[in-house]
Amino acid sequence: MQITETVPPEILFREYAYFSSFSDTMVSHAKVIAERLTEERSLDEDSLVVEVASNDGYLLQWYHKQGVPVLGIEPARNIAEVAVRERGVRTISEFFGKDIAQSLASEGTLADVIHANNVLAHVADLNGVVAGFAAMLKPNGRVVVEAPYLKDLIDNVEFDTIYHEHLCYFSLTALSRVFASHGLEIVDVERLSIHGGSLRIHAAHAGTAKLSNAVIELMAEESAWVFDEDTHQEFADRVETLRVELTSQLEKLKAAGHRIAVYGASAKGSTLLNYFGIDESLIDYVVDRSTVKQGRFTPGTHLQIHDPARLTEDQPDYCLLLTWNFAEEILKQQEQYRENGGQFIIPVPEVRVA
Fold first, then answer.
1. 143 in Cβ contact with 202 (< 8 Å)
2. Which one of 62, 173, 238, 343 is most buried, counting C-beta atoms within 10 A?
3. pLDDT digit string (tens) for 40-50?
């Protein structure tokens, strides 16, 4: 499942505003898998862990702290600089693909583990990236990929994760095919709750590892819906129902004199605001924890972005939570705002007030 527009990667990713370390959830999530794989794969000072689209070192820092050599490959120069300076993570500021992978491999840079978290959806040259995995992976190495799962997107009406940076929305069926075309086999799969529901796949060179029951079972489950047109049409209908419910509730609150802010200047938030037609007539302003975004404006709706501290200073009656995928973390951070009477409106998968 994919969109039909592709913005050139040089425009999108050479300077980037998303820093993974601003999310405590993401950092903790990364720490757990790094420690787990270090033990499971017996990684040590003679090993190498590579991350594609390594961002600010949020993941590789945990291997680095355990004495495992790391290499980040991150196209955003502003973010790669932070990874090196603040976390000591060796980082190459380039787009990953077949050519750079083959070049590194020819120099003897081969990986025991290659991570690619929330990146496959972003790449136009999908085959080039997967071919790059195969070129850099040691004979008994593992590629560990996390990507939002199409089934969760459909079931939970996560339409707002469809935007210009996300070119593809993956099922295990689709991932298995593209990996197989480059001599790699998905040997294990996990379903994760992060980002509204994701897959974590473990791939190896074909024929080098036993296929887990989890892969066999999930492939069988997908055969019932992945090619079913009605499944996708029903998703579209549910998005329209959600639009009516949320906009009606916001209009009623505004008409009653309530003030409404937004938490989360995210890409998914821009999709929701623009597609639903929610603008300054309903929303007063936006807050976001990322200092990189503060002082800027939301695309299309032109709402100014402030520090979250403004919520307790200004105390709007309601706050529409657009980064709903981190709801638990954000509600905890904004405990004071809630104790003072503020309420969060969580829009996905259904409108609810917390």
1. yes
2. 62
3. 999 999 999 99
Task: Name the residue with tokens 């916001």.
Answer: 250
Do residues 278 and 285 make contact, with C-beta atoms less than 8 angstroms apart? no
Lowest mean pLDDT among 4-13, 38-47, 196-205, 236-245: 4-13
CATH 3.40.50.720, the chain: domain bounds: 248-353
Residue type, 40: E
Peptide bond into 349 cis (omega under 30): yes
> In this structure, what token pair is assigned to residue 205?
């060179």
Rounded to whole angstroms, the Cα distance separating 60 from 46 reads 16
Location of structure tokens 């973390």: 329
Would you tell me how many other CB atoms lie within 10 Å of the CB of residue 214?
17
CATH code linked to domain 9-227? 3.40.50.150
Give the Cα separation of 205 and 317 in Å (integer). Answer: 55
Amino acid identity of residue 288, one-letter, is D
- Mean pLDDT across 300-306: 95
Bridge-based pairing state of the strands 198-205 and 137-148: antiparallel
Residue 195 above 90 pLDDT?
no
What does the alpha-carbon distance between residue 290 and residue 287 come to, in Å, rounded to a whole number?
Answer: 9
CATH 3.40.50.150 placement within the chain? 9-227
Which residue from 10, 2, 200 is spatially nearest to 117, judged by alpha carbons? 200
Entry field: residues in the chain: 354
Cα separation of the two ends of the chain: 33
> What distance in Å separates the CA atoms of residue 151 and residue 104, rounded to the nearest whole number?
36
CA–CA separation, 199 and 30 (whole Å): 14
Does residue 297 contact residue 275 with C-beta atoms inside 8 Å? no
What pTM does this model have? 0.88
Whole-number Å distance between alpha carbons of 62 and 7: 33
Of the candidates 328, 323, 194, which has an alpha carbon nearest to the alpha carbon of residue 271?
323
182, 334 in Cβ contact below 8 A? Answer: no
Tokens 């998914």 sit on residue: 268
Residue 244 neighbours by CB distance under 10 Å: 10
